[in-house]
Structures are given as structure tokens and as C-alpha cells.
């Protein structure tokens, strides 16, 4: 026996809402209009546009746009259609399947967690490593020029040609271990008191006066340079850019529609991610740099000695916790390097034999007394 | 006040009550406990209603908020009954939990499809939000699709994205003379500046045509060029007048957006004027300058602790700016009309302040994962305070099918084709 129930009818031409009586038959929905006329909607031609979620009215549409529609507050209508015409009503939502949907949501949640962790740990670094060889070196060089122009502008550079040439010899000793490298390595010294050095993509290595003056021997400087050169050879900047881009895509996917609300957590995740990748790159530069020292027949312990001196001087300052740092913990780095370096080699060559390292490393000071005193700040 | 009706569909003993506002249905366990003039509240939307016991001759029992005699419930166009009820309210019925579940599935599919599902996910969320938004008891419907959003994205990328990125990054790919680069950067900035108003108008055009209420589509018929003129003039004057022109700019923008919006063949009107917002804006601006100057003096003369002073700025200025936002929103809706009926927004700064404070707390504690609840909270407050007062003859609102289709017709028409990507 056909079941009747009441619903609202919208004709798609006016905003008037009619209360109608629905009769569910095995083939079609009969609509009893207020004026006594009836309409018949075969189930196959009805589209369900609302009523898939809890608290949503069920809306069935019929005909071309602007469509006629039936709206009812409960899902009972859907259940009854499914009961009366199981085959014809397959494209309607079945309210009894809502528990299954909940189960799928849980599976999706587990899947999301697994995929995000997998992409974060392996996917993103893997994609970046695979894509990096396709980035032209010319592009890296152009980017490197901008980076150097920004971080180490021309004016405060120390340009004592004689001493710079000696520093270049250290670089050449290291680069000689890499055959057929597309990079042309250039070294510049910037007159700044900060103890730091950096490598721009494309091959420009910049050391700051502060760091140069803290090195006790040319081998110690070679240790720092080996680390920085590895950033160039391993193309860490390009990888970092690719990783950042991939990370942005992943986080955009995770945040979805309302990224505004998620921005707070997202920015945190993005920063944490880039710091994680940065620490990975630093570790790689340490290890490969040490190998480079070994390949150049230099004493790799000079690398650890210099880092150790820096570490002792920095003891007074409490650094950020490991997971908030761009570099791995110095203690760990030193331990790892010491293990890899092994005992000091007996045949280690000495750099710049017969030269006065103290004189070479003070090239900025000498410049200050000589040609351009104005560019050099007061020295302690 | 809304009405609720009971109809004995299932059995004599367990009649059902339908809330006229949210269409939610509830079972009454014991009909005999209902007494004349008993009052209750709809569990879903909080509408108050009162019980009216009908005379025995009537077939249906009827509950009515304004205690007027029950009307017959046999098949009548309820539009005519609607005109009797002078106040129509908005309400939102979505649940944070469901939204979160949908989002999880969306994220899963988006990752699996390498991001392609993003647009379909967005359409799905919007469909849910619109379907749970009700006005005068009837739900809205969203008709947009992921495919359209994707096409909109491509269109916007073609016209704005590619020029913007290529101008901005030209120096990394090409050797451009240093004198030309600032010019290219300025061009990129201009493209971005142009994008904002074009996106505002076209997103509105798209969303309106994809939104319906009672089967009638909305539409937006303003021209992008007109909005661009308004937008440039507004920003120019706002900057030249050190911000004091802003209320006029804001009301002009609202006037343009509201008065070019149609429901079916009938138009919304905006009657506001910048002078109406001048006082609250002046108060806000003056307080802001005063507080910042005081803090500056205190810091310069080292009267207070620097950190404490900087912390006090959001605490003092936060409520002031929330109050201004509330005033702005209230003014905007209070001056919007549809036919003879007037919109009204009853939002108070306390409501808005509690809402924002709660939202920030929720997002901070959950690192952003509480956004579904934040969305629900926002929608509940904004829609719950919105109402339409006065008689509206909905029977005379007709569908305008010519305006409801938005399709791209080549680049020449691109500015007015309507696209939505955000």
C-alpha cells in the first residue's frame, strides 16, 4: 500500500512554498498539489541535492534548471523510497549507511596521519632530491648573486689581493677533490664582526671577518670552508626551496577550505618542517665536508677543533632547544665528526706552509690601516 | 516568534512537532502533558514557542508563538502565511563534528589526488554550510561544483597569477637591467592590487548565482569596471585623508555590492551613508591614536616596562576595534532592504568580543584544528543576530533565469564572467 507524507514543494519559478502530499509508489513519486492536481516524478530522473548529512532537510530536484524541488525535514522519505523501490533509488543517499560513513572517516583519518608522516619524513626530501638535478646551475648562480648582493654587499668586502689569493689556495685544495663540478667557487671576506660563514647557491662562499679571526690555523678555516662548499655541491638551497614548496602544497592540502583558521598551526608546522630539513642538510654538509677534508689529505680533526672552540665560547649562551634550531646540537655534531674522523692521519698535508696565518687572517684590519679605513669598524 | 506545528503522523500517542524555523522534527512523548499556554524552546535552534490547545472541532493541534488562533494546515501556499509573520530570522544548524569528519576525508582525497580534489572538497564544504543555513525556516542551497571552482582558478591564474609571478620573478630568469626591475616589481604590485577588487566582484557574482533559497537563485549584476573605479577612488581618498574617508569608502562599497544583488527578479537596496559610520569610526581612530601616543610617550620617558606596555595595547585596543567591527556590520545590515522589508542586525560588541576571544582560545589550544567549531560559532552568531522585518510578498518573487547562468565567454568578457577561486 502506498505511503503518504507531507512535504514542501518549490516550483523553481516563484519563491512560493506549497505544502503537498507525497505518495511513494514502486516506480515514481506522486505529488499531490494544493489545487488537487498531481505530478509524477520517476525516481531515475530525481536528483537528491540535500539530506546526506545529519540535520539537513532532504531536497529532491526534478527537471532542468531552474528545477522543481521537494523539501522535507526528515530522512524518513528516503528510507521509504529505498524500501519501496530499492533498485530505482540507488542514487539516493541511504540514511542507514551513515555508520559506514563514520567508519570510512576514521580510516581516512588514519590514512591522513600515515600519509602526512610519510610525506614529511621521506616524500618531501625524496621529491626535492629527485627534482634538484633538473634545476639549471645558471639559475642557482643568479639566485646566489642576489643572496650575496643582499647579505654581503660590495662595500664592506675586504679586498687585500695578496692575502685573498692565499685564502683562495685553501679553497683550491678542497675543490681539487671534486672533479667535473659545474660550480665556479668564489670566496669573499666581509668586514663584519659576526662569527659566521655562508655559501650562496651557485658557488659563492662568504666568510665574515669575525670567523676568520677566530681560526687558529688554515686547516681550521678549511674545515669551515669544506662544510660550506658541501652546501653548494649538495645543492642545499635548491633542495630547501623545493622542500618549502612541497611543504606548502602539503599544508594547503591539509588545511583545505578554511585555511585562515588553521594559519596559526600551519605557520608553526611549516617552520618546524623547514628547521627539520635544515638540520638534515647541516648534518650532510658536516659529513660530506669531513670526507672532503680527508680526500684533500687534510687533518679532519681541525674541523672539530674549531667547532669545539666555538662551542666552549658559546657555553654561556643558552641556545634554543634542538627542535627549534636550524643546526643540529653542537655536542652531537662534534661526537659524530670525531667518530667519522678517526685518529689524525700521519700523512696529513699542511696548508700554506711557511706563511704567517695570523697575518693572513687579519686582512680586513690591514686594509683598515691602509686603503679604506672608513669601512672598518673599531676593533677590540 | 515562530510557530511550531504538531501533526499526528505516526500514532495518536506520539505526535511530532515541526519547528517552523529550522524544520527540525521532535516527538512528544506524552501529549496529555501539554497544557494550554505552556512554553518551551526548540532544542535545535532555540526558538521559543507556546502551546495553543485548539478547539475540539479542529483536526490538528497547533502551537503558535504569538498565540494567534491556529491556521489551517491543509495544503496552502505557506508563502501567504509567511507574510503574516513580520520578523524572519536567520539561523545556522551545522555541527562542528560533521565538518571535521568531512574535512578529514577531503584532506585524504586531496593528498591522494596530488591536490586536484581541493576544489571539489571546497564545493562539498560549501554545500554543507549553505544547506545548514536557514532563513525564515527555509534552508539555502549551494549549486556550485568543484569543476567550476577549478575553472575559476585556472582563469584567475591565467589573467593574474601568471603575469604576477612572471613580473615579480623576471629578474631570476632574465637578465634585466637594475633600472627596469623596480618598474617590473611595481607592475607586479599593480596586478595584485587589481586582482583584489576584480576577485571581490566576481566571487560575489559566482556565489550569488550558485545560491538559492526556496528554489530561487540570487544574482549579482554590478559591472566590474564600476567597482574598480569605486575601489581606486576609495583607496586614493582614504590614503590622502589619512584614513578619515574610510567610512565613506566602506559604505559606498557595501552600497555597490548590496544594491546590485538580486533575489530572483527583486533587488536588495542599501540606504546607508558614510556619515552614519563617521562617529564610531572617529571614536575608534581617535582612541587608537591616543593609546598609541600614550604608550609611545610612556616608553620614550621610560615610565613603564616596555613589554607590559606592548601587551596592554591589544588589551585596550582589541575591544575598541571589535566594537567598531560590530558597529560596521550592524550599520551595513540595518541599512539593507528587500522590498518593503528591512534587515536588522542585533549584534552587540560583547557578543562579538566573546566570539572572537573564544575562537582565538580554541584555535590556539588545538593548534588550529578546532576550525570547524569556530566556523559553526561564527555562523551561529552572525546568522542568529540577523533578521528581516516587515512584509515581504514572496509570492511575487520570480526566478530570473537569464541572470542565473554564469559562463566564461572568452577573454573579452573575462572581467564579468564570474569566477571564484579562494
Tell me briefly what this model is.
Chain A is an alpha+beta fold. Chain A has helices at 76-84, 98-131, 137-151, 161-175, 209-214, 218-233, 236-255, 259-295, 301-313, 330-341, 357-361, 363-369; strands at residues 3-10, 17-24, 28-32, 38-42, 46-50, 58-62, 68-72, 157-158, 186-190, 197-200, 204-208.
Tally the helices of chain A: what do you get? Answer: 12
Query: Helical amount among residues of chain A, as a percent range?
Result: 40-55%
Quote the beta fraction of chain B: 5-15%
Q: Which percent bin holds the helix content of chain B?
A: 40-55%
Arithmetic mean pLDDT of chain A? 83
Strand order of the largest sheet of chain A: 4-3-2-1-7-6-5
Low-confidence stretches of chain A: 369-380
**What would the principal axes of the Cα set say about the shape of chain A?**
rod-shaped
SSE order of chain B, one letter for each helix or strand: EEEEEEHEHHEEHHHEEHHEEHHEEHHE
Q: Give the termini distance of chain A in whole angstroms.
A: 101 Å
Q: What's the SSE pattern of chain A?
A: EEEEEEEHHHEHEEEHHHHHHHH
Uncertain segments of chain B: 1-13, 55-83, 405-417
3D architecture notes:
The complex is a heterodimer of chains A (380) and B (422). The radius of gyration of chain A is 35 Å and the shape is rod-shaped. Chain A has 380 residues and is α+β, with helices and mostly antiparallel strands. In chain A, strands 4-3-2-1-7-6-5 form a 7-stranded antiparallel sheet, with helices on one face. Chain A has a 4-stranded mixed sheet with strand order 8-9-11-10. Chain A has helices at 76-84, 98-131, 137-151, 161-175, 209-214, 218-233, 236-255, 259-295, 301-313, 330-341, 357-361, 363-369; strands at 3-10, 17-24, 28-32, 38-42, 46-50, 58-62, 68-72, 157-158, 186-190, 197-200, 204-208. Chain A folds into 2 domains: 3-93, Pleckstrin-homology domain (PH domain)/Phosphotyrosine-binding domain (PTB) (PH-domain like, Roll); 131-375, no CATH class. Chain A contains 12 helices and 11 strands. Helices cover 50% and strands 15% of the residues of chain A. In chain A, helix 7 (236-255) runs antiparallel to helix 8 (259-295) and helix 8 (259-295) runs parallel beside helix 10. Chain B has 422 residues and is α+β, with helices and mostly antiparallel strands. Chain B has a domain at 4-70. Helix content of chain B is 50%, strand content 15%. Chain B has 12 helices and 16 strands. Chain B has helices at 78-82, 96-112, 118-131, 146-168, 170-173, 180-209, 224-240, 246-259, 274-300, 306-334, 349-365, 371-384; strands at residues 4-7, 16-19, 25-27, 39-41, 48-52, 62-63, 87-92, 133-135, 138-142, 211-213, 216-220, 261-263, 266-270, 336-338, 341-345, 386-389. A 10-stranded antiparallel barrel of chain B has the order 7-8-9-10-11-12-13-14-15-16, surrounded by 5 helices. In chain B, a hairpin with a 6-residue loop joins strand 4 and strand 5 (48-52). In chain B, helix 2 runs antiparallel to helix 3 and helix 4 runs antiparallel to helix 6. Chain B is globular, with a radius of gyration of 26 Å.
